[in-house]
Amino acid sequence: MTKKFDWHSDEIMLNSVINDTYKNTQNVRRFFKAHIGEHFKFDRSFMAWMIDNHGATMGDAINEWQRRNSEK
After folding, report:
1. pLDDT confidence of residue 71
2. Which pTM does this prediction carry?
3. Total domains present in the chain
4. Residue 57 in 3-state DSSP?
5. Which positions fall inside the DUF6434 domain (predicted)?
């Protein structure tokens, strides 16, 4: 049996796949802040994108957040 990814404590990498166990955790927030910067913030629409895009990678999520942020 394969261990499920623990979004609270496992190391998140750019190629980590967003799966059905995804949670918006402090570990995820630290990952985004490390790659995007301290100005990173979750908002409802981005959190919904994360839930709706199982199969995308965390690198894809960074690109999506940056695309959304550039439109503001």
Report:
1. 75
2. 0.91
3. 1
4. strand
5. 5-68
> In which domain, by residue range, is 48 found?
41-72
Say how far apart CA 39 and CA 33 lie, in whole Å.
7
Structural domain includes residue 25: no
In a domain, 70, yes or no: yes
**Mean pLDDT (10-residue bins), the chain, 72 residues:** 85 96 96 97 95 97 96 71
Domain-embedded: residue 1: no
With vertex at residue 50, the alpha carbon angle to CA 48 and CA 53, rounded to the nearest 5 degrees, is 105
What is the pLDDT at residue 24? 93
Residue 67 near residue 45 (C-beta atoms within 8 A):
no
**Nearby residues of 63 by Cβ (< 8 Å), 6 or more positions away:** none
